[in-house]
Every structure is written in C-alpha cells, then in structure tokens.
Design goal:
Blueprint: E1 3-7, H1 13-29, H2 42-50, E2 54-59, E3 62-71, E4 81-82, E5 91-98, H3 107-121, E6 126-132, H4 136-144, E7 148-155, E8 158-166
Length: 171
C-alpha cells in the first residue's frame, strides 16, 4: 500500500473530524469512557492543524488516519503519578484515530512508527503517550511497540495510563 504521513491542512479538518467521530462511537460501543465527554471535537482538530500538530495518514491521497503530535508540550505530564524514564525532550502523540473500513490493518501501529521517525529526525529520543485504562486496543499496541508504563496522569477529571518509549539514536 502507498501510505503517507504528513501535516494536515485546515481544508482537511472536516474529513479528520469524521474519522474522530467514528472512533468516538467505537470507543462508546466498546464500553469505554474515553472521548465520551465532548472531546475531541472539530475545534480541537482545527487548533491542532493551526499549531502544525495535526498529522494525517493517507492511502493514495485519501485520509485514513489522524494523530496530533506535539513537541515538549503536555502540561499534564508534569504531574505524573509515577516516574518517566527520561527528563529530556520528548514527542507527545494524542488523538490517534483510524477511519472505519481501515481497521485491523495495523495502521495505528504505523502512525506510532511514523511518529518515531519524526522524533528521530528532530534528534528527540523519547515518545510519551497516554490512553484510557479501558482502551485495550491501544494498550496492546503500546505493549507490542515497547512502550513502558510509567504511571498515571489526569485529563479533564479522568485518570489515564501514561507510557514512554525511549528511541535508539540512528547511527
């Protein structure tokens, strides 16, 4: 398949929002509490894109996945109940979602691997992520990719499991 991972354009916000809405419904159908409080929403997507943090996964130019990637900026991570593996620069990945009809192809994993490439290109060797305690699919992906559980963080009144992966420097 011809996959590309790139920064999103504001004109793509509606398509991205559709993918996120599908993911919100999936989380609800799975019995999860994650994303059931009006977040994320279209305004969040637009802000991601305006801050150049919104990224899309495309297949033959069709948007099939989304994630927000920020550098060294997640205030909630300063209040981790636990201990991070590193205290250096880091990349944060939020709001990862895959479009209906593209599930089960390992695309969430692919987005995480693309995120690692972006981090390494910027000489950043840590990726920090979090997810809801009941997002079993994402928890399994973190485990498969070598993310280490570091503790809990709080977002919008809910506790989330926090993970970090330390990347190897390219030779």
């Amino acid at each position: 398949m011809n996959y590309n991972f790139r920064k999103a354009n504001l004109s793509e916000a509606a398509a991205i929002w559709t993918i996120l809405q599908q993911a919100i419904i999936r989380r609800k159908n799975d019995g999860s509490q994650q994303w059931q409080d009006g977040y994320p929403n279209l305004e969040v997507v637009k802000k991601d894109i305006q801050k150049e943090a919104g990224y899309v996964l495309t297949e033959n130019e069709v948007i099939i996945g989304y994630a927000s990637i920020v550098f060294n900026d997640e205030p909630a991570y300063a209040d981790l109940v636990g201990k991070w593996l590193t205290n250096n620069e880091f990349v944060v990945l939020h709001r990862l979602a895959i479009a209906e009809g593209h599930l089960g192809k390992g695309l969430a994993k692919k987005i995480l691997l693309f995120t690692e490439e972006i981090a390494l290109q910027k000489n950043i060797f840590s990726i920090k992520v979090d997810t809801n305690f009941d997002n079993f699919a994402m928890l399994a992906i973190f485990e498969k990719l070598g993310y280490v559980y570091c503790g809990e963080v709080e977002f919008r009144g809910g506790k989330r499991k926090a993970f970090e992966k330390v990347l190897k420097k390219m030779v």
